[in-house]
Amino acid sequence: VSALLYPLLIPKLTNFYLRIILTPESYQKLPKGSSNFIISAGSTMAPLNLLLGRVYQAKKIVCMNPPFLGTKYFDLAIIPEHDYRRMHSFFSKGPKNLFITTGAPNRINLENLKEEAEELNKKIKCQNKIKIGILLGGDDQNYHISKEWTKVFLKGMKKFTERVNGDILLTTSRRTSPEVENLCKEMLSSWQRCKLLVIANETGENPVRGMLGLCSIIFTTEDSIAMSSEAASSPATTVVMKVGRKNKKHLAFDETFKNLSQGGYIHLISKEQMPELYKIALQLLSQPTKILNETEKAAQAVRKLL
How many angstroms separate the CA atoms of 6 and 295, rounded? Predict the structure, then answer.
């Protein structure tokens, strides 16, 4: 409702409107005085960002493109490339107030990764030098990770791990199907080189950051641009695996992955290359990827605005 009303709301009535939509406790907690900028992420907080920006006479900064509102009312909108490609026809203010990121901005911090890697290794006690991380996604409206694909993938990973005398660390996601989860347990749970197997739907444990800091090479699936961007923002060599599609249409994510690959931030493995995964992985281990740092670039855009 606030998103629809904002363009019609008289600036002098903004404070009055905030009293209506906020609880008395929340309204009382609003700081007095002015602010340099208001920053929010996602669609839910975007209308409040604009309202507070008016009250505090602050620069208004949003991460991601909020539906209904669009970006024209904001001083700066930080938009991932895949969102921009899908929705650029709705951006009425043009590129002057937009900062386009190649991947998804995230909270990956190299110092924190090192600490979390140390904590994780205390638990799992990996002795081998080469640690191989696998971030296995799942199904959504575009992608499908089948049991057959997973079987071929894990066979290749096991062969690769044996060849380099390494250890495997794997976590699934909330979207991973039960049959794929069961296959992971069947193929890895009793295998001596699998030092970590986390089934996300069975535990609240989230070892991803520890894995990103600990592993030499990370294999992730293309169904999550956020997961792939986090991996690319780590020191690990990042490999993104192509998976099944529910339809043949070209996705905005395809261009993002292509650009990340051309920029040297990830290696892309197609479904056709899966039978040769073992050999390809051996080659990629000696071809480190660059560290993606879109969050710092976005922070620089904010500093420039101020």
Answer: 29
